[in-house]
Design goal:
about 325 residues, alpha+beta, Beta-lactamase, 6-stranded antiparallel sheet, 3-stranded antiparallel sheet, 9 helices, 13 strands, about 30% helix, globular
């Protein structure tokens, strides 16, 4: 291993132990070539299989980047004619007073201000575009929207347009446990849990991805839709997905988002990207520990995986997220 990568690997292993994850992996692409591939631990904490390149992790909220690409496709295909269309135009079964002036832009940048109460009813936390809050309701709404616009689950749209052309065989929303699926550790004193879902329409958090294909997903965006010298996804679709769409006027310390991707423009207190990460970089992550970081300035994609629910650090979790991205950026300065 090159000395320049040792700090990243040590960091990944240290957090694995501190957070009591049973598994970790790290893969780095530089100039579209694998320069580091690291696997450690087991599929669960009860004498399970060793983690290998075939192991598939539940990437939790990182799945939003896959949904976000479908939003970009819907705009490119004319199924959504403007990101600033009111959401009420597409959800006539929801309370129009709660939706108010919420737009598609608000839904994909976490600035919609909507949540659900215990009864599943929509409630409003703040006016659309006024602030930023990470909630799950926008994912439900956008999933339903894309599925309705295309007349099929967005997962099938991705299979046709991206997964098959790129030869992905280890990226899918799983409904039954399999030998290559990594369990999720919720209580370190107990065995890992099966987190497969009951449906394949993309609504549930049951997307399992190998570390290699997670990195290749990132490289698709880095290369503006090209893979193996073929244009798999139109360049315009990729650019839409990773462009900052956060409304102007929200607090300067709040994150900036593309279509769910966290996009770096300048240091912001509440961003998950560190202050040494170059502008134009973007990242997606999940509660089980996966991180996909793309740094175009250095032509780098970094995929990191864990299998422990909740990122390490509790209320200081942003510090550790930023620390990882800063170390990654320092590695390639």
């Amino acid at each position: 291993m090159k000395a320049s990568y040792e700090k990243l690997v040590s960091w990944v292993e240290n957090i694995k132990e501190l957070n009591q994850s049973s598994a970790a992996s790290l893969l780095i692409l530089k100039d579209n070539k694998v320069v580091l591939e690291h696997y450690s631990g087991t599929h669960s904490n009860n004498n399970a299989s060793l983690i290998t390149e075939s192991s598939r992790f539940n990437v939790a909220s990182a799945r939003k980047s896959y949904l976000g690409l479908c939003v970009a496709y819907a705009i490119h295909d004319g199924k959504i004619n403007d990101i600033d269309n009111y959401a009420s135009r597409y959800f006539d079964d929801l309370n129009p007073e709660i939706l108010g002036e919420t737009t598609i832009r608000h839904l994909v940048t976490h600035t919609h201000g909507i949540d659900e109460n215990a009864n599943g009813e929509l409630i409003r936390e703040f006016k659309p575009g006024e602030s930023w809050a990470y909630r799950g309701i926008n994912i439900k709404l956008i999933t339903h929207l894309i599925n309705n616009l295309y007349g099929k689950p967005f997962t099938e749209l991705l299979r046709e347009k991206v997964f098959v052309p790129m030869g992905f065989h280890k990226t899918w929303w799983e409904t039954e446990d399999r030998d290559d699926l990594v369990s999720v550790i919720i209580d370190p004193e107990q065995g890992g849990e099966d987190t497969t879902g009951s449906t394949d329409n993309g609504m549930e958090s049951n997307l399992f991805v190998s570390t290699q294909e997670f990195a290749r997903w990132g490289s698709l965006f880095l290369n503006k839709g090209q893979f193996n010298n073929k244009q798999i996804v139109p360049k315009e679709v990729i650019e839409l997905a990773i462009e900052i769409h956060t409304p102007n006027g929200i607090d300067k310390e709040l994150p900036r988002n593309g279509f769910f991707w966290f996009v770096n423009d300048l240091p912001r207190e509440m961003s998950e990207l560190g202050d040494r990460v170059p502008a134009g970089s973007y990242q997606i992550l999940g509660v089980t520990g996966p991180t996909l970081l793309v740094i175009p300035k250095y032509d780098v994609v970094i995929a990191k995986m864990y299998n422990k629910r909740y990122n390490y650090g509790n209320e200081n979790y942003l510090y550790y997220l930023k620390e990882f991205s800063n170390i990654a950026a320092d590695t390639f300065q």
